[in-house]
Structure formats: C-alpha cells, structure tokens
Specification:
By secondary structure, the protein is α/β, with parallel strands linked by helices. The protein contains 14 helices and ten strands.
Length: 379
C-alpha cells in the first residue's frame, strides 16, 4: 500500500504555536517519543480534544549515531509525520529537545551543527538549544557567569536561523541546568539570571519563544532515599512566577518550558502550576513507563530480558533494583530495538489504549482542550 500523503498534517512552526497561545491559561504538552508506537495514542487524544501538542526527542536519544532509541533523525521525523497523517491531526510541532552543549569545544559545536542540519532537513520545526552546562563559576557578575552559555546559545541559534532561510521556527533556550544540587539543595534559576540571559540573546538578534529554567524539578522517574518511586512536588512555583513577571517587566513574551513533569501528580499540575506562565510541559519517561508496564503483561519474555539486562549492566551497590531499572530503562531501547518493533499487534493495541487514556488526563491537567483552534488561526 502506498503511504498516505503527510502534506496536510506536516508539523507546524513551534513559534506559531507559542505565539498563538502566549498567556493563554494552558501548558502545551511536549511529548517525548522514545518508542514510535507511543505517538498514536497521543495524536488521537489531541485530535479528539482539539488540543495542540509538541512531539519531541532529545539529542542524546536520537542523533546522527541513532542515540539511545536506535532510530536515526530522518526515520524518527518520517514516522511521526506518518502517524500524524494517519490520525489526521494538524496542530502539532516537531521539536528537537535538549540540543545539549556539554563542553563548548569547537569540535563539539561543529558536530552539533551537523546534527541540527540533519534535523532541519528532516522537517523539525522547533529547537531547544541547551548550553546550560557551560557556566563560569569564577565570574564576577551574572553576565560573566552566564557568558559561556550565552555565546554557545547565540552561535547555534544563529546557525538554525541561517539554515531555516526565512521560515519561522520555535526556539527554546536554557539557563540553569535542570536537576542540579549544591550543598543547599536544588539549584534554582533567579529572575536576574533569566533576564540577563534573555537580554543578551536579544541584543545579538536571537529571540527565543520559551526558556527552560532550574526550578526544583528533575528529569525522569523520582525515587526516595530508600530507592522507592515517589512523586515530585519540589517545583518552586513562586520562583517560576517571579521569573515570568521579571520577563514581562522587560517587555518579553518569553515563557517557561517546564522540564521534569514525570512523577508530578496530575492534580498538582492542574491546581498549582501557573498555566500560561509555564507554556510548555515536557513529558518523557512517563510514556516510557506505560510501554514497559504493557510489556510486563503482554510481552513478559521481552520485559524480563530488558529488566535483567539493565540490572546486569547498571546495578550499583546501595541502589535498589527498582531505582536502577527506573533510571536506566532508556538505555535498553537501542539494544532491544528490533524486538520492541516486533511486538504483537495486541501489544500495540494495549499501548495505544493506555497512552490515549493518560493523554486525556494530561489534556485536563494542562488545560489544552479546544486550544488548537487558536493555533490554526495563526496559520
């Protein structure tokens, strides 16, 4: 059978989506698709509720060497477009998340540019430059301390702009490394750091749509001191609001990308998160957990082999098996890729149903029902 044309359902510019929804009382779900079969249930829920959605994948997960998920950039983009077309959903963006700069060396920057070009060639419409790892601890001023991040972010953002040749695209940047702790606990971005960072980018002609900050969250599953899975309610709501207020005071429309949503109770998100101040909410490991839960029942041998492989390769003295599995399950996706792709149709059916149901819960918690109409008016 000839594949369905995806033209009508191609991903739209992330910038159009963010600008259409700025200061609306919602948080756009940004769903990280580490296993392609996750996407259908998310697209179906978005269509049935007329909710905008961002489909994303991070550099570590999908890059020129395949990354953790065992799929290259072009295949990932093609499969997401095909699923969107099959579901017939149009209000979505394709986001390259965590284009991370770890060292800032010339070699690393040039390698990242090659990956960005591949992402653009494959049809990505939104990009997150994350140079938050670059920090000058000896700097005398906020600007001095952020300058390595600023310089790398500007260079990569300008490179994206050059390759996009006048087409609009979404741009996320990051100040404050997510999930970092010091002797006082979680490191939290200050309003001054946010405004100095955005001002410096604007002065160089770089205008992000969203800003990822350190506000008390961590990526992935969260565990207590006994290695048991627990909820995440550590996000500093007041500091997040203060940062957005500072950005508004400087006349900026930049709003917050909330990383580390997995583990946060949905009722907490619905009642406590500042919808609109936070405009993008990243949901990643949550979907992976659902797929693994389905495998446990529908594909017990596959699940058992994945579990044993993770424990064998990543167990550490003093760390529970539950925590080891929860933190390192992503590492199994590439070596088990072919077996995951070959699961039974009944397994896929169950994954679709489970993800669809939970995607509906996120629609309620993030308050996106009916909001795709605002996006279409900007097209």
């Amino acid at each position: 059978m000839k594949p369905m044309s995806t033209t009508r359902y191609e991903p739209i510019s992330g910038s159009i989506m963010f600008k259409a929804l700025v200061d609306k009382p919602l948080i756009i779900p940004a769903c990280n698709i580490r296993i392609p079969c996750m996407a259908r249930g998310i697209f179906k829920a978005a269509k049935d509720t007329d909710s905008p959605v961002i489909i994303e994948i991070a550099k570590a997960e999908c890059n020129l060497n395949d990354g953790y998920i065992g799929i290259n950039i072009d295949e990932f983009a093609s499969r997401m477009k095909q699923i969107a077309a099959e579901v017939e959903f149009d209000a979505w963006s394709l986001h390259a998340d965590h284009i991370s700069v770890k060292t800032g060396t010339r070699e690393e920057i040039e390698d990242i540019k090659k990956m960005i070009k591949a992402q653009i060639d494959s049809g990505f419409t939104s990009f997150a430059v994350d140079a938050s790892h670059l920090f000058n601890f000896d700097g005398d001023t906020v600007y001095d301390r952020l300058k390595p991040n600023i310089d790398a972010t500007i260079e990569l953002a300008q490179y994206i702009d050059e390759l996009m040749t006048g087409k609009t695209y979404g741009l996320e940047v990051e100040v404050g490394e997510i999930g970092v702790k010091d002797s006082n606990g979680m490191v939290v971005t200050s309003p001054e750091e946010a405004t100095v960072f955005i001002t410096a980018l604007n002065d160089a002609g770089v205008y992000p749509d969203v800003l990822a900050i350190a506000n008390g969250s961590t990526h992935g599953n969260v565990f207590d001191e006994h290695g048991k899975a627990t909820t995440q309610v550590s996000i500093d709501i007041d500091q997040t609001k203060a940062i957005v207020e500072a950005l508004k005071q400087m006349g900026s429309d930049v709003r917050i990308a909330q990383h580390g949503v997995t583990g946060t109770p949905l009722e907490f998100i619905k009642s406590m998160f500042p919808h609109g101040d936070i405009i993008k909410g990243n949901i990643a490991t949550y979907w992976q957990n659902i797929v693994l839960d389905v495998f446990k029942l529908y594909e017990p041998k596959l699940y058992s082999d994945i579990y044993s492989w993770i424990i064998e390769n990543y167990s550490t003295n003093g760390v529970s098996e539950e925590e080891t599995f929860g933190k390192y399950a992503i590492r199994a996706l590439r070596p088990f890729h072919e077996r995951i792709e070959a699961v039974r149709p009944e397994t896929i059916e169950a994954i679709d149903a489970r993800i669809y149901a939970d995607a509906l819960l996120f629609v309620e918690a993030l308050k996106t029902r009916g909001m795709a109409s605002y996006v279409r008016r900007m097209l």
